[in-house]
Amino acid sequence: MAVQKVEHPILDYKEETPSSQAFMEEAEEVMPGGVTANIKYFEPHPVVMKHGKGSKLTDMDENEYIDYLMSYGSLVTGHGHEHVKKAIMEQMDRDGTWLFGTPHYLEVEMGKRLQKHFPSMELLRYTNSGTEATLLSLRLAAAHTGKHKIAKFEGHYHGGYDQMLVSVSPSVREAGNADAPYSLPESKGMHPSHARNTITLPFNNLKACKKILLQHKDEIGAVMIEPVQAGFIPAEKSFMKGLRQITEELGMVLIFDEVKTGYRTGLGGAQNIYGIKPDLTALGKAIGGGYPVGVVGGKKEIMMHSAPSQGSDVFDSSQSKRSSSKDVLFHSGTYNGHPMILAAGMAVLDILEKELDDVLKQTEKLKNGINEKLRKYGVQGEAVGIGSIFSVVLNNKEKIRNYRDLQKTDLATRKEIDFRLLGKGIYVKPMNRYSVSTAHSDEDINQTLDAYDEVLREVYEGARF
């Protein structure tokens, strides 16, 4: 389909956000590139927000947006939910402090609630982020198996550290055969050994995965996967079942990275949908309601490697050490299980145990509405995803099953649509997925669909006829 372009959305965007541009110019004098996390940046400059409430964000130029980024899915209950705020204040008033530096009751209470929704978590430990959770899961797997190579999937992101910052967004031209993808580093400064020690697998291709894992069966101790790639491309059930079987046969720890999908595909995560029990699960983002937190949970025999009773503390310099460092799996962190954050997490669960079904219904309403608008203008595309997260892919002639399929879609037009939506008060960072929250109302959904109608008319105007 020929596309008739009208106006220039990037120029319009710059005209509408001059204060954001000025802020970023000042920020560049303080931080490299003006940001403290690369993910916050996009050309020509990011929107700089100054206020958020419910489903809305307001930028420095007083432009108001319906927010579908929701801090990359973290805010399942929206911005500034009063019940979460109240829980934090009550914890500080009740306990007299926001940090004990000792064990405390909320660690157990929150843990039991998580175990209820994630039965695979026989034992669990807290971290300060999803990234830290995936890091700990790899160390646990290596301690359990004695094998130190790891396998991940092409296009899957598990945190910005060297072991896993491999083949996240590779050039398809450089990535090798689709059945045997190369392991390509995604950052400067990485040691070349990571391209050798992190094996890249093709997502939703069981036959090829099995071949690669068999080749490295004596080296790979862990296989980590996003059960829903990037939060919106689901694994096929037969693929997931086969992966669970082959990892068990080869003695590899299967790790579900549910940082994106935990709570977003349901309170029990994607593993509940697939009926698969991973050996370890990593959670983050949504479970803290926007506060920094992560969790690793799984089989007791694996998790017990981190128990201090299994060896001495690395900081114990006394003469009474019971074992040497080779016997100790070290995991620590002053802020692990932070009481204020766990209070927020408990409040998030209070809300979602009552309202998550409504969020899922609202998401389906939005997805179906977008699909109807695409059909109205004769656009080959679809809102793709499960649960309360999805993305819009254009010109997908076949089902999107993996990273390489996604690269064949019309990414340029998707980006244009995103910028045009910004001009109509619909915020999602260009090219990112949508996350719906308890705060999104029928009015928000209808307003979003009206904006989509206007944008698709602008982009495809006349082409259908």
UniProtKB/TrEMBL annotation:
Record key words, sorted: Pyridoxal phosphate
What GO molecular functions are on record for this protein?
Answer: pyridoxal phosphate binding; transaminase activity
Quote the Pfam families the UniProt record gives: Aminotran_3 (PF00202)
Cofactor(s) the protein needs:
pyridoxal 5'-phosphate
Database matches in SUPFAM superfamilies = PLP-dependent transferases
Known PANTHER family for this protein? GLUTAMATE-1-SEMIALDEHYDE 2,1-AMINOMUTASE, GLUTAMATE-1-SEMIALDEHYDE 2,1-AMINOMUTASE 1, CHLOROPLASTIC-RELATED
Protein family according to the UniProt entry: Belongs to the class-III pyridoxal-phosphate-dependent aminotransferase family.
Under what name is this protein listed?
A: Glutamate-1-semialdehyde 2,1-aminomutase
Please give the organism.
Alteribacillus bidgolensis
Taxonomically, what lineage is the organism? Bacteria, Bacillati, Bacillota, Bacilli, Bacillales
